[in-house]
Structure formats: structure tokens, C-alpha cells
Amino acid sequence: MQRASDALVVVDVQNDFLPGGALAVERGDEIVPLVNRIAAQFAVVVLTQDWHPAGHASFASSHRGKRPFQKIRLAYGEQVLWPDHCVQGSAGAAFAAGLDIPHAQVVIRKGHHRRVDSYSAFLEADRRTKTGLDGYLESRGVKRVFCVGLATDFCVAWTALDARRFGLQAAVIEDACRAIDTDGSLPAAWKAMQKASVRRLSSAAVL
Ligand code: VGL
Ligand code: ZN
Predict the structure, then answer these.
(1) String of DSSP letters for 132-191
(2) Is 72 a domain residue?
(3) Is 124 in the pocket of ligand 1 (CB under 6 A)?
């Protein structure tokens, strides 16, 4: 059991990020039993859910002539384009069937503004619009955030980095995450997290 001021953030463990899903993360399914075991150690658990409207700006299909994994510039800066994924209410957007965290208390849905993506569970990609998670964690007295889920180099990393921005201690439990790793994104994410003093842990540290 961790401290009362600790929270676990379970990032985007959704069907579309598992093998066979629209934006499958290699071996993403492997983390599910481990995430369940880790979550049992935390009193405060937040789930995040990527939750896009059809025609979302992060979908390659929304931009003529563009393909998934290409980058474009949007109003707020560079955006990687993805296959259509995690469309609101779809089976792909549902949590993985094996995810078993009945005591999780809040679900943060993100990426719901059509023109703005949100990898982070705290701040959307315009770097201005809050999801409300900072206020929720503050209200619950949380000081340390542990992150697990999908994908290490996008939503997990951005969430951990933003936790630091909001004055929280942050850690990523590496073996309870899997990465997309496109165009150097995984080493870049670890570098940014190291610079921001995000701790890189193994699940053994919390089990
Ligand atoms: C994610 C790409 C697009 C993630 C979400 O959960 O890491 N990656 N949307
Ligand atoms: Zn997304």
C-alpha cells in the first residue's frame, strides 16, 4: 500500500491501443494483469480514456492527402496524425475487457475537442485548456502521481511531464507501459522525463 497522498493514473488502457485495435501498441495487452495488481496497491486511482469525436483533428483521415504517422502543423503546433481511434462511444474506445479496477474513482476523458488533441491527462495540446485533473488531485490531497498504461512515449509521458508542471512528484512504472515508438518518440520521451525529474520505476518498487 502506498501513501494516502499517492495516486495511480492508468492511462488509456483501451481496446484501440491493444493488438487488433485501430492504433495498436505492440504487446499493449501484456500490461493489463500487471496494471490490475498495481492498482490494488493504491487508494486513489484515476483512469484516463482517449475520447475523440468523429473527424478529430488528430486523425489523418481528417486531412486531405495525409497518412497516419505523418506530422502536420495545427494552430497549436506540431501534431502527429493517427489512424481514426477511440471514437466516443465506440467499442475501440472502451476499456480493455481485462482491466479490473473497480475501486477507481474518476475517469478523465480527453481529446474531446474536435480541433485539439490531448495526450496529457492534465492539459490539452494547446497547452492551455485544463482537463480538471489538477484540481481533482489537489482536492484529494495528492502529492505524488504514478503513471502506467499506453503509450509510454505519448499519453503516459505527457501526463507524467504535466504532473511535474503542476507541482506534483511523478513516476512512470516502465514495465506497466508499452510504447508506440515512432520517429524517435520513445528515447525523446525518456529524455524529457529525465530532465523534468520524472522517476523511472519498475513495478517491483510498488508491489
Ligand atoms: C495516444 C496517440 C493518439 C496514447 C492517444 O494514448 O498514447 N497516442 N492518442
Ligand atoms: Zn488519441
Answers:
(1) SHHHHHHHTT--EEEEEEE-IIIIIHHHHHHHHHTT-EEEEEEEEEE----TTHHHHHHH
(2) no
(3) no
CA distance 93 to 52: 9
The predicted-structure confidence for 175-201, as pLDDT tens digits, reads as follows 999 999 999 999 999 999 999 999 999
Is 172 near ligand 1, meaning CB less than 6 Å away? Answer: no
Q: Which structural domain range is residue 179 located in? A: 6-52+83-205
* Catalytic residue of the set 6, 110, 117, 177: 110
> What distance in Å separates the CA atoms of residue 23 and residue 102, rounded to the nearest whole number?
26
Under the banding of pLDDT at 50, 70 and 90, the label for residue 2 is confident
Ligand 1 atom, smallest distance to 58 CA: 3
Structural domains of the chain, count = 1
